[in-house]
């Protein structure tokens, strides 16, 4: 978001310290992309190339183009994710084309969850998910370092308790 | 289990008196097997006839001798093993014959209490009682209790939830109520006649089946479409009239009370400070008469109507009682999106409006059927700002406000800079709004 125009003192002074995601998630997503689309490229090149003649191997260009495009897209998406722990709320900003900024006051958190699937665990990643009483609150921070995820969980829980409020 | 746990258990058993539901309860599902049989008979009449002729009196008698005691035993056991108890802080429901299930519902988390009496239950003199707490489902209702029991239990639960001492909670009795508003049957009928949906479903029910007949000449197709259409038409006109008949809103120290229904009577008590959102809906044809419909969201509650129809000048003071200290902002104080919003949402952008007062976040949408939503700042769970590529092209953004009732109120197509400012300011307001909110135990 472009904010902090000079006359807007409130926005300018509360502009938080954003934290980006560690590069682990980017590496994981790009690796998965290369593994899947790479094997598809090889298959799309070899099978028609061997069966119908070498000219048909151009089909391999399609998944290859997709891979390059995905490579760029994943990078842009990864860069767009950032979060900021402010004194009283958590800010989460994400998305390139469809951009979303979410603010969750610490007092409204009902539950903080740290999850890590098998692939994520292999890459040493974990995500932190925040739940409020509203299901529409979609506040997930993916691809964090497990230590950072745990630190964040403990800090959020602590802050949530201190500022806790009912519904 | 460890020793202290056992002690705790023993002490609880001593102090908490467990009660059972009304003995009529096992009969509430008695119609289900009969309905299945009838459904099967209707589904395949020929086979049914063949089966019936094969049956002799002896087989019928044997079947009845097995089925009826088995059903009765199941009904009796499931009733026998369902207990409920009111403790100092909780309502405990223990149920289940094979799969035990214990629900502990915390009283200070109560969002609303519903007492409903379906037609047959009214005949039998029993009622259902349900506590609306976030996450409860159909299983957590107490069905059925004697009518007097249900009323006494509701009063006791409300007294305990309000923070009265447990010893006195029995004696507090029902809080006195002051009738605020009653919707006359005539006005309700006219309001339904002036609702577009009523006529649309009716027209569909009258037009579609003949057209289908003209094209297909297939009786079954016509019946299969006509029945649901007629059902929908009936539900949206007669059904609504029956459900919203004799709508009474009253106020008591325990909160807002709603009584309604012609055949099935329902009663709802919403304690103070539980309302998450209030919506004022104004269909096109009601506008000349100045009527509005007021809806409200309470977390965990199924009912969402506060007032089916009333003149605006009557509805607004009522809203001030539901959301204390809130005045409904006049239409002129709402700011429209900037003109360029028309590039994102031609014509309809004129229906959007938004403003913030000291107490509430207010957003309007709809051009023909206007709907104005008010969210108290204290009820906001999270704030989101969203912007798609086309909206960014025109420097616009939406601001969503999520409430605890799982509803989202959106200020659409605001100027991007205004939206960014609003996001920060709203987060701040939501955080501080809670400070002067009333406590969960409203009498404490």
Tell me, briefly, the overall form of chain B: globular
**Quick one: how many beta strands of chain B?**
20
Helix content range of the residues of chain B, please? 40-55%
Major sheet of chain A:
4 strands, antiparallel
Low-pLDDT parts of chain B are 1-14
Low-confidence stretches of chain A: 1-12
The ordered H/E elements of chain A are: HEHHEEEEHEEH
Task: Write down the CATH class of the largest domain in chain A.
Answer: Mainly Beta
Q: Strand content of the residues of chain B, in percent?
A: 25-35%
Determine the fraction of residues in helical runs of chain A and give it as a percent range. Answer: 40-55%
The neighbouring-strand order within the major sheet of chain B is 7-6-5-11-10-9-8
Shape of chain A: elongated
Give the quaternary arrangement of the chains. heterodimer
Strand order of the largest sheet of chain A: 1-2-3-4
Total separate domains of chain B = 3
**Number of helices, where a helix is a run of at least 4 consecutive DSSP H or I residues of chain B:** 13
Could you say which structural class the secondary elements and strand pairing of chain B correspond to? alpha+beta
Domain tally of chain A:
2
